[in-house]
Design brief:
This is F-box domain-containing protein. This protein is α+β, with helices and mostly antiparallel strands and 250 residues long. It has two domains: 145 residues, Protein Transport Mog1p, Chain A (3-Layer(aba) Sandwich); 83 residues, Up-down Bundle (Monooxygenase). The protein has eleven helices and six strands. Strands 1, 2, 3, 4, 5 and 6 form a six-stranded antiparallel beta sheet that branches. The protein starts with a helix and ends with a helix.
Amino acid sequence: MMATIEKNSLSSEFSSLLSNTLTSRGHERLFNIAFVFTVETGFIPISLEEQFNSTDSNIKLAKTIKSQPLNSFWYKDNDNFHAKLVMSNQLCHLIGVSIDGSLIITLIHSSISKCINFEDDEIISSENIKSLFDLSLKYKNLVSVPVKCAIKEITVGQYPSLCGVPEELISYILTKLNPPDLYSLMLSCKKMYHLVINNQLIWKKIVIELVTTLPEAPRLLVNIPDWRLCYYDLNRTVKCKRKVVERIRE
């Protein structure tokens, strides 16, 4: 189950990189987690600027960072943390300020800044993959993606496309779509096609919701290899039954 969640939330390389953050403790661990989330959004440590262009979920970048100690990408002043990153050649600052038992994480570019408060209980819950996914979603929604969009608007004159959004945010958007919309999204590009067709958790959720219209269906939901195809078969059955009912009523 955990492997399925991991596959549908964080890429394997970034998930592995994130696991390295859990070896540290306290505020250092929280800052490392925020640093990884920021890099996964497409921000690049300034020390690696010449090797990489701004990118999204770049596996090579994740491997390069993983090969070095995470604290080599930032410096600490008392109990505060500071890392320099770039996005589209624009300098940004990731700052962690310790206040009582929490760490205020702020991502700054020019006059744009977004912040989030990481609490001590999130330090504990971050041991769990699902909690890390939720924390990643919250962080990117509130901090890294808004700053990224602002930079893209300044540098290229427009917000990044949906393909420029981190995959777990796209997965969250997918949960809000109905099957016809999902199929339309699959037709937009190869990346969206694979994200939709491979997200078994979403199709399983849709199937379970559809099952309520088929009393005999629960006994059929055993050893399902592909929940999307299962939805297709069940939906066809539902439509056939509706046609029969309509004919009887006529």
